[in-house]
Write a structure and sequence with these properties.
about 450 residues; mainly alpha; two-stranded antiparallel ribbon; 14 helices; about 0% strand; disordered C terminus
């Protein structure tokens, strides 16, 4: 049925009451069916009463903006950091620590961005490398193989064998030599494991506390930051300052200033951590290797002598009492200690990072693609006066990688000279954020979590 035509706008006589005139309307195109409101079934939408619209306040406050946040359970909380540090199995604990550092690094990256690595990013790979020493992977075999061809050990060992034959004993078993090396390695591994635990328990909690405090924030709040920093103990000023710099960096828009704030924070955490680690490093590097070797070898000889019947063992016991056996063992022990330190240094003095392994005793190589510039764009020149002063204090070759190699890792100043250039040259490497075992962790950590090598 055609719609009614619109009449010209002229005066007309009103129609009869029995035929009321309806307003004219334009043609309406078919529309999709609409579910009627309650109480309007069967009533034309054109004839239904209009829906009353709710008033809209033109000055209604907008919902508060929300800054970046981190998914709960994707990183260890401060309490969970303590739980991980309390694990008794040093191998499983190291794995959990390494994963924990990585997930804290990732959580920090969500707040501060991943254009700059944070200290926990670097700690991930240092902890993973420590795990090699903690597990003692391949060390005893490498040590034993080297001993077989070491002139410093071979000659003196043959003299010990001559003495043992005169005492009616067989040659010194090579198994005893390997056992001595293994025992010395266990001493070194324990010192490294203790340091790994101590640093994570202390610094890991602070990274977790930072994430818990500042996630969701959209702008720097000086009062809130000051309240947060008041939670640091008075004897940890470097940590307090470092996390204050992280808080500033979180909201810094200038990429140069942000990179410098991150480097300043990383260096201060690094200096604090390495100072705390000094006793553990000295214990690992200066482990009483000679005493360990001598004790193991002497115990083997004594066991053989005690197995001899009387009076065949009298000469041997006299040789032990008069020091003849010690005198023969001294050159062997010296040679073994020399070989062990060489092997242990090779194991300890390297850092495997994504893309390769760094030998800490050598000068730090420039990152790939930065052979001429050495440092990433935002760190090629340093403007921040406080960062300049700290680099001047710690860097023995400013703006250069020459002379960065640490010949004695037991010296704090040599370690820091290497570390600050490691931080500066690799701070923008995105591969450092890769998970060390191929996947992110979940928290809390199950006590029976499988080990990952």
């Amino acid at each position: 049925m055609s719609p009614p035509k619109i009449r010209p706008n002229v005066s007309v006589r009103p129609p009869e009451p029995r035929e009321p005139l309806r307003p004219a309307r334009n043609e309406v195109k078919p529309q999709a069916p609409v579910t009627p409101r309650p109480g309007t079934s069967g009533v034309s939408r054109f004839e239904a009463p209009s829906v009353r619209q709710q008033p809209v306040a033109l000055n209604a406050p907008a919902l508060p903006a929300r800054g970046p946040s981190v998914t709960p359970g994707s990183y260890p909380t401060a309490a969970q950091v303590r739980d991980i540090a309390a694990m008794t199995d040093p191998v499983a604990r190291n794995q959990a620590i390494t994963q924990g550092y990585s997930d804290l690094s990732n959580a920090m990256g969500k707040l501060l961005g991943t254009e700059n690595a944070n200290w926990s990013t670097f700690a991930t790979w240092a902890s993973k490398q420590a795990g090699v020493s903690i597990r003692g992977e391949d060390m005893p075999k490498v040590f034993t193989d080297l001993l077989k061809g070491a002139d410093a050990v071979g000659g003196p060992l043959s003299k010990v064998d001559d003495l043992l034959r005169k005492l009616g004993l067989p040659s010194l078993p090579l198994g005893d030599v390997a056992s001595a090396g293994n025992q010395a390695l266990q001493n070194v591994s324990k010192a490294i494991a203790d340091g790994n635990k101590a640093v994570f328990e202390e610094v890991g909690q602070e990274f977790a506390r930072f994430v818990e405090t500042f996630q969701g924030d959209t702008q720097y709040d000086a009062a809130k930051t000051q309240q947060y920093l008041s939670g640091f103990p008075a004897d940890k000023p470097l940590l307090k300052e470092a996390f204050g710099h992280y808080a500033q960096a979180m909201f810094e828009k200038d990429p140069n200033k942000k990179a410098e704030l991150m480097l300043l924070a990383n260096n201060k955490v690094g200096l604090h951590e390495q100072t705390q680690l000094q006793p553990h490093v000295e214990k690992a590097l200066n482990s009483p290797v000679k005493d360990t070797f001598r004790d193991v070898l002497k115990q083997g000889i004594e066991a053989q002598l005690n197995a001899l019947p009387f009076p065949a063992n009298l000469a041997g016991k006299a040789a032990l009492k008069t020091g003849v056996v010690d005198a023969a063992l001294n050159p062997v022990v010296d040679g073994m200690a020399s070989v062990f330190r060489r092997v242990a240094t090779e194991h300890m003095m390297k850092l495997a990072v994504p893309g390769g392994a760094l030998k800490l005793g050598n000068d730090l190589p420039p990152p790939p693609g930065m052979e001429s510039t050495l440092f990433p764009p935002h760190l090629r020149t340093i403007d921040d006066p406080e960062l300049k002063a700290l680099l001047g204090q710690l860097d023995k070759s400013p703006d250069s990688l020459t002379g960065t190699g640490a010949k004695d890792w037991g010296k704090l100043d040599q370690r820091m000279n290497y570390i600050i250039d490691l931080f500066r040259s690799r701070q923008s490497d995105p591969a450092l954020f890769d998970p060390p075992f191929g996947q992110r962790g979940t928290y809390p950590v199950a006590p029976s979590a499988p080990r990952v090598s």
